[in-house]
């Protein structure tokens, strides 16, 4: 795997924080029913994926993430402003209107088949992974978070 040239490598300290958050989330057996937690999960995962891509490595947690998603997919799909879709082997997750793309989740084929087909809206969000994660850690209520995400989403749409 060749390092991705289009984005800077995420800050090491933020990568550590994202890694800790993901590992704690994977251990948590409680039902996730808070959209902000879901956003933080995918923002943290995005940091880890961006870091791995930039380093030219594969993220070793992907099978655990696939298992975590598979065990919660039905419940997560009931959350408002959260959408799971697929495009070929990509899992597309839209939270608050922001689309994350996760490639090649191992052992996720059976769940992927249950998801509606969609088109990856691009561009990717790896180049702003740290910004999205920092925003997810801010003490914002849902309305404030959505307001902060609106210009980011608009800018991404203009980059197409």
Explain what you see.
This protein has 160 residues and is mainly alpha-helical. The chain has one domain (12-158). Helix content is 52%, strand content 11%. The protein contains six helices and three strands; from the N terminus they run αααβββααα. The chain has helices at 12-27, 35-55, 62-77, 109-112, 129-137, 142-158, and strands at 82-87, 90-95, 98-103. Strands 1-2-3 form a three-stranded antiparallel β-sheet, with helices on one face. The longest helix has 21 residues, at 35-55. The protein is globular. Residues 1-5 have low confidence and may be disordered.
In short:
This protein is mainly α and 160 residues long. The protein has helices at 12-27, 35-55, 62-77, 109-112, 129-137, 142-158, and strands spanning 82-87, 90-95, 98-103. A three-stranded antiparallel β-sheet has the order 1-2-3, covered by helices on one side.
């Amino acid at each position: 795997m060749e390092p991705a040239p289009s984005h800077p490598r995420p800050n090491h300290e933020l990568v550590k924080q994202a890694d800790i958050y993901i590992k704690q989330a994977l251990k948590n057996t409680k039902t996730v029913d808070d959209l902000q937690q879901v956003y933080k999960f995918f923002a943290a995962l995005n940091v880890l994926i961006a870091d791995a891509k930039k380093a030219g490595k594969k993220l070793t947690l992907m099978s655990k993430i696939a298992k975590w998603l598979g065990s919660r997919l039905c419940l997560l799909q009931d959350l408002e402003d959260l959408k799971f879709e697929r495009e070929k082997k990509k899992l597309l997750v839209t939270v608050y209107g922001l689309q994350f793309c996760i490639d090649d989740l191992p052992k996720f084929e059976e769940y992927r088949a249950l998801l509606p087909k969609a088109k990856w809206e691009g561009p990717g969000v790896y180049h702003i992974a740290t910004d999205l994660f920092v925003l997810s850690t801010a003490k914002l209520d849902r309305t404030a978070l959505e307001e902060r995400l609106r210009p980011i989403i608009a800018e991404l749409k203009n980059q197409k």
